[in-house]
Specification:
The chain is an all-alpha fold and 141 residues long. The protein is built from five helices and no strands.
């Protein structure tokens, strides 16, 4: 299952990186320009840290699916991704709106993009992770 986990993690990382570039770098660029006072200057941003966090979260999502979701299928992967995506989308979008002075449309965009990213990651997990779940503490991920 290690190869499946590695492949799925890389696929999720690449997909999320492309989506993040398109959404945050292109589609929401003007929204970030309007709220420039809220963000670090570009030369102070930690791109490597963000990539590491993205990779780690993708790995965590894939391992969680691999260990705890039964049966393994495209449908259960999608279901897993949709449920987790709703929660993470609400947390990152609406949760951020609760304590940051960002426009509501930006919060809703974060909610939607995180929902989509995690739902797609669930599809990837459902497609690529095929072995049955092992007991907690198993060594094969």
């Amino acid at each position: 299952m290690f190869k499946q986990t590695l492949l799925a993690t890389v696929a999720v990382f690449v997909l999320w990186s492309v989506i993040d570039f398109l959404v945050h770098g292109v589609l929401l660029h003007s929204a970030y320009q309007e709220t420039l006072h809220l963000w670090r200057p570009e030369d102070q941003m930690h791109a490597l840290l963000m990539s590491a966090v993205t990779l780690f979260f993708g790995f965590t999502l894939i391992v969680t699916y691999g260990y705890y979701v039964v049966p393994k299928s495209l449908a259960t992967g999608l279901g897993f991704g949709v449920v987790l995506g709703i929660g993470v989308g609400a947390l990152t979008g609406l949760g951020s709106f609760a304590y940051m002075p960002i426009p509501l449309y930006l919060a809703l965009a974060w909610c939607l993009v995180n929902f989509v990213k995690i739902a797609l990651a669930g599809l990837i997990a459902g497609q690529l992770i095929k072995e049955p779940a092992t007991e907690v503490g198993g060594s094969s991920f």
